[in-house]
From TrEMBL, chain A:
SUPFAM superfamilies: Bet v1-like (SSF55961)
Protein name: Cyclase
Biased segments, Basic and acidic residues type: 238-251
Lineage: Bacteria, Thermotogati, Deinococcota, Deinococci, Deinococcales
Segments forming domain Coenzyme Q-binding protein COQ10 START: 90-212
Top-rank taxon: Bacteria
Region (Disordered): 226-251
From TrEMBL, chain B:
Source organism of this protein record: Deinococcus terrestris
Lineage: Bacteria, Thermotogati, Deinococcota, Deinococci, Deinococcales
Entry's Gene Ontology molecular function annotations: oxidoreductase activity; zinc ion binding
PANTHER family assigned to the protein according to its UniProt record, in alphabetical order: DEHYDROGENASE, ZINC-CONTAINING, PUTATIVE (AFU_ORTHOLOGUE AFUA_2G02810)-RELATED, ZINC-TYPE ALCOHOL DEHYDROGENASE-LIKE
Domain Alcohol dehydrogenase-like C-terminal: 196-265
Annotated ranges, domain Alcohol dehydrogenase-like N-terminal: 25-156
Pfam family, one: ADH_N
Name of this protein: Glutathione-dependent formaldehyde dehydrogenase
Keyword annotations of the record: Metal-binding, Oxidoreductase, Zinc
Similarity comment text for this entry: Belongs to the zinc-containing alcohol dehydrogenase family.
Top-level taxon in the UniProt lineage: Bacteria
């Protein structure tokens, strides 16, 4: 992102006001206080939720953003920007990404990407949507600088009009390559739709962050670590408690 | 198989659970032949480490024999006798390549949770809550180990289980604690806490060239053990530690001070009570930093404070004024176990250190709840318990029933 982009980006409210932090912190403390009266897993959950809120307050995370996780551009689109450093060269990373059919390997919500015949500029994307449905669209490449940058945008008729870009920048020292991703999209129902989706666990911010981490692990290690299926002394309802903490299921 | 399972604050039990399986091609299954209880397991027992779940298998100091390997495991073979470092290294990321294995970028399957608490996620750890990955631990008859080629270390022939078991954690932890003291010839090192890590810290400080080491604790048997490692001792219940340290060092103060106590330090006076009260809420203060405060105050000007003790969250009233105005350096961290193994194995092979000396109790896995109890309350002169997951409980003397808390 250039300096100019940064200045133009609307205020996200990332840093909360002192009042908000106090409020936020006290919600956390309140949950903890409640948890003290509870035994078993309910207590643990409340306590952990409270601790997370307090930690958030300590780090100055805004209440609004933490609850909704949504950042809007001036024309009411949603913009997500995330970065990660991967210990590989920019050319290798570019090649992996440029083959869009690799994307569903680490983007959890993508079902498939098919590059269409011809000049390879067009592709067909299928994404999983809430409640077992799916969303499909066609996209075209709008910029392609080998080893440096790829940009794309959806074509007319997409349910969720979107555009995105990925940049590969050499990291200092022997740290590998920084991957910077930005996505802009207009969800059905505008911001409200996105807020609702976020509360249902479909937040694009978190998704992209997880996706990039999966990419890093896939490329650096060969697979993504898991505890799914490991042994434990858990029975029945307690499994849900473990799921609260784990991104993956633990049985 | 049998495993030690966390059942809530102050409750661990030995239960029959499913045997572990290979879940990923880089996994290996280890038949655990010796495992130990660590001081940091007590923070789990006491409920100060967030994100433990009922039914979690605990234990992060363990070793054994490889009985099964995944399809991508190359260096490790079935039948190898191995130790398992407690932090999990992927072996590939920048941190692992730099030897900073406890900071591995890739081995924690739950990095989001750690990032909420700490900003960034360190490595996954065995048997140490879901914030560090939720991996099942090794106080069990078998354990699933991950990234076997990067994490399992073959035990050299001629060394017993007990001689190498502590290479998984407390020996390298004490050693890194001493290394973080930045010892120079002639230095005097003070070590708060003469538990297992403190004792290895004392021995390591001498190995690294300290002229004198002063150990601070309140349990006579620990202080006695510290003296056998060559340390001078202070019982903090009987002496004014700050004054005595100053006097013992000609008014200069120790060149470096190690906090080998961590988040559940004992303290007297108003601050100690305030900490204890706040900490019971688990949120107003998650850590009781008394040893850290004392370490910062006692350290000489321009000296180094080394913190191998475990802290989890937020701590109150750290004397930052003293820290800044005296120009101190603080060095901390979970142990990068892997980077120390060759060197420390050498010390053991050459007889320069005998790690088995700190073992006071050898018990069966079935006796784990009792072992936790005597270790926590320092009953029966307990300094370090080693558990044998395969010993028949009938071979052992019956152990006395746990005494009431207190
Ligand atoms: Zn430990
Ligand atoms: Zn790593």
């Amino acid at each position: 992102m250039t300096r100019k982009d940064y200045e133009e980006r609307p205020q996200s409210g990332r840093n909360s006001s002192p009042a908000e932090r106090v409020l936020f912190g006290s919600i956390g403390a309140g949950l903890i206080a409640l948890s003290l009266g509870q035994r078993g897993q309910v207590g643990t959950l409340l306590a952990t939720g409270g601790a997370l809120l307090v930690a958030g307050a300590a780090m100055g995370q805004g209440l609004g953003e933490t609850v909704t996780g949504v950042r809007r551009t001036e024309d009411d689109q949603i913009k997500v920007e995330k970065a990660i450093t991967v210990g590989m060269g920019a050319d290798e990373l570019y090649t992996f990404w440029r083959n869009f059919e690799n994307l569903p390997r680490f983007m959890d919500h993508l079902e498939s990407v098919k590059v269409q015949d011809g000049d390879g500029q067009r592709s067909h994307w299928v994404a999983k949507a809430p409640a077992g449905t799916s969303v499909e669209w066609d996209a075209e490449i709008t910029a392609d600088e080998p080893g440096r940058r790829i940009a794309w945008r959806s074509l007319e008729g997409a349910t969720v009009p979107n555009e995105g870009a990925v940049e590969f920048r050499p990291a200092p020292g022997d740290r590998g390559t920084e991957i910077h991703v930005s996505l802009t999209y207009r969800p059905p129902g505008g911001t409200l739709g996105a807020t609702v989706a976020r509360l249902l666990g479909e937040d694009p911010n978190v998704q992209i962050e997880h996706d990039l981490r999966r990419l890093k692990r896939l490329l650096e290690v060969g697979h993504i670590p898991t505890t799914e299926g490991q042994s434990s002394g858990r029975k029945g309802a307690l499994k849900a408690e473990a799921r609260m903490y784990d991104n993956r299921r633990t049985s | 198989m049998k495993a030690v399972v966390w059942q809530g604050v102050n409750r661990v039990s030995v239960e029959t659970v499913p045997d572990p399986q290979i879940l990923q091609p880089t996994d290996a299954i280890v038949r655990v032949t010796k495992t130990a209880i660590c001081g940091s397991d007590l923070h789990l027992l006491d409920g100060y480490v967030p994100s433990m779940v009922h039914g979690d298998i605990v234990g992060h100091e363990f070793m054994g024999e490889v009985v099964e390997v995944g399809s991508e495991v190359r260096k490790v073979k079935v039948g190898d006798r191995v130790i398992v470092p407690f932090p999990i290294a992927c072996g590939k990321c920048w941190y692992c390549q730099k030897g900073l294995t406890s900071l591995c970028d890739n081995s924690n399957p739950n990095p989001g949770l750690a990032e909420k608490f700490w900003g960034y996620s360190p490595a996954g750890l065995y048997g140490y809550s879901h914030i560090t990955g939720g991996y099942a631990g090794g106080q069990a008859q078998f354990a699933r180990t991950v990234y076997a080629d990067a994490n399992l270390f073959k035990v050299p022939d001629g060394l017993t289980d007990e001689q190498v078991l502590f290479l998984t954690d407390i020996f390298p932890t004490g050693f890194m604690g001493a290394e973080n003291c930045q010892i120079e010839p002639g230095d005097v090192v003070a070590v708060f806490g003469a538990g297992p890590v403190g004792l290895f810290g004392i021995a390591s400080a001498f190995l690294l060239g300290a002229e004198r080491v002063i150990a601070i604790d309140r349990f006579p048997e620990r202080l006695e053990m510290a003296r056998t490692y060559g340390a001078e001792t202070i019982n903090y219940e009987e002496e004014n530690v700050f004054e005595l340290l100053k006097e013992m060092t000609g008014g200069r103060g120790p060149d470096s001070v190690m906090d080998a106590v961590g988040l559940e330090a004992q303290a007297h006076g108003l601050l100690g009570v305030a900490d204890a009260v706040k900490q019971t809420t688990r949120v107003l203060e998650s850590d009781r930093p008394h040893a850290l405060r004392a370490a910062i105050m006692a350290c000489r000007k321009g000296g180094t404070v080394s913190v191998p003790g475990v802290y989890g969250g937020l701590a109150d009233k750290i004397p930052l004024g003293a820290f800044m105005n005296k120009g101190l350096t603080m060095k901390t961290g979970q142990t990068h176990v892997h980077r120390y193994l060759d060197r420390l194995t050498g010390y053991i092979q050459r007889g320069e250190i005998d790690p088995t000396r700190i073992i006071t109790h050898r018990l069966t896995l079935d006796e784990a709840p009792h072992a936790y109890h005597i270790f926590k309350h320092k009953h029966d002169g307990c300094i370090k318990c080693v558990l044998d997951p395969w010993a028949d409980p009938k071979d052992h003397e019956p152990t006395p029933a746990p005494q009431p808390q207190g």
